[in-house]
Amino acid sequence: MAEKNLKKKAASGMVWTALQKYSTMFISFVSGIILARLLTPHDYGCIGMLAIFMVLAEAFIDGGFGSALIQKKQPTQEDYSTIFFWNLGMAVLMYSILFFCAPAIARFYDIPLLCDVLRVQGVILFIYAFNIVQRNQLKKKLNFKVLSIVTITTSLIALSVTIFMAYKGFGVWALVAQNIITAAIPAMVFWFYIKWRPIWTFSWKSFKELFSFGFYMFLTHLLNNFGTQIQGLLIGRVYNPSTMGYYSKALGTERLATSSISSIITQVTYPLYAAVQDDKNAMINIIKRLTVTIAYITFPFVFILILTAKPIFVLLYSDRWLQSVPYFQVLCLAGLVNCLINVNIQTISAIGKSKVMFVWTLIKRTIGIALVVVGLMLFGMKGLLCGVVLNTWFSFFVNIGLVSKHIGYKWTRQLMDIMPVGVASVIAAVISYVSGYFLHLGLYPDGIVKALIFLLIYFGWSILFKPEAFTYTLTNIPSRFQFWKRKKHE
């Protein structure tokens, strides 16, 4: 009965998370189109340059305790209260550091405006700290309905305010307001919705217990965030804010496109992994189905984006953003496996191997940062982008190796499971590109024809050969809607 109830919660969570993700995707999509015409690459570049400092500060505030609370089967009131006050204390410390370092950071980039921007945007750290425990309680209970409704409503309000401010000429401050509103509204809603309140206690016993797991999770998140954001630091230092803006737009569009499917699924599956952490066979089955389904949906989508990148950027963002196109196409090569990385990372985290994750993250990120820095020094932006791609693929192979060792889902088996989808996607992409090359069509007809040829080949292969990935996708996705129908009739 407990297992059945868990599956129902997971299925419901998948539906609500999908609703949230696709709604916010659509809102972000609309926001990107409108704001790209109201704001400049320089405005986006200023925010992108500061991202590394905000992300690292948030990692220190969380300290890995959010994941530790989800991983622990029965957290106590003392556990929650201890972490709540830890988060607030770290928020005060991190904001103080950013406040006093803001002038130096502005001088580092040689952009005086960044001092005020960082000090104002830093307010988000207090909001984030105030909200972590409540958000993790909802996730642990698989209550994604509330999370979804609040997130969608917040996105709409933030979009409206941002567009108004951008239209009135506030420039980069419109993006600052968007970030603050996006953080503030959920914090207020969750505080009043969730009946939990901290008690005036700080238990060193709870802290040490959660710290034993959370510390390595914190170091892992810190390294991951630094490795992910280092590109912005380097681009901002070596190039101008506009180049950073082009990169930010390319990266944001790639993430919006390639991570949509995987983020929906992995947001629900971490609590699910934690619940079945003692059953390796169940975990292997979950990982396989998720990996194959995500690959079947995401791989063709990514290749179509690469083939049609230019008409997509011109249509959505105008000619002003054409310089982002080659950045976007290269980053999509990383997106092919980036969508699968979280599936493996969450598995290792759920079984409590936080120290193992940290050690390998240290190795991955050290090599990754070296690739990015050397690539930038030798070949400029092209080298940096290639370093990002190589780093992502290296991380993917390390992660499937860890799953192979600690879960038992062999890395060779994982690669064989997704290989048919990869080969079919590459063949369809090559044929589509060659066809477009010889047809000599205009900008938009060329994109449409390439996409249609790709889909014809890919789905023709699926129907004709009925690969395992095709079967999984047909059984997994419709089952979510069947669950939805049953709920309506109950």
SSE layout and pairing:
Elements: H1 2-38, H2 41-62, H3 65-71, H4 77-109, H5 113-121, H6 124-140, H7 144-167, H8 172-193, H9 204-238, H10 241-258, H11 260-275, H12 280-307, H13 309-317, H14 324-350, H15 354-406, H16 411-439, H17 443-465, H18 468-489
Helix pairs in contact: 1-7, 1-11, 1-18, 2-4, 2-5, 2-6, 2-9, 2-10, 3-6, 3-9, 4-5, 4-6, 4-9, 6-8, 7-8, 9-15, 10-14, 11-12, 11-14, 12-14, 12-16, 12-18, 13-17, 14-15, 16-17
Structure commentary:
The chain is mainly alpha-helical. It has 2 domains: 1-216, no CATH class; 239-480, no CATH class. The chain has helices spanning 2-38, 41-62, 65-71, 77-109, 113-121, 124-140, 144-167, 172-193, 204-238, 241-258, 260-275, 280-307, 309-317, 324-350, 354-406, 411-439, 443-465, 468-489. Helix 4 runs antiparallel to helix 6, helix 11 runs parallel beside helix 14 and helix 12 packs parallel to helix 16. The protein is globular, with a radius of gyration of 23 Å. The two termini are 18 Å apart. Mean pLDDT is 82; it is low at 478-490.
Notable characteristics:
490 residues, mainly alpha, 2 domains, 18 helices, disordered C terminus
| Sequence of secondary-structure elements | HHHHHHHHHHHHHHHHHH
Query: Cα distance, first to last residue?
Result: 18 Å
Overall geometric form? globular
Our count of helices gives 18
Strand content: under 5%
Assembly state here?
single chain
Low-confidence stretches: 478-490
Secondary structure tally: strands: 0
Characterize the biggest β-sheet.
Answer: none
Measured on Cα atoms, how large is the radius of gyration? 23 Å
Mean pLDDT: 82
**Structure classification:** mainly alpha
Please give the share of residues in helix. Answer: over 70%
Q: What number of domains? A: 2
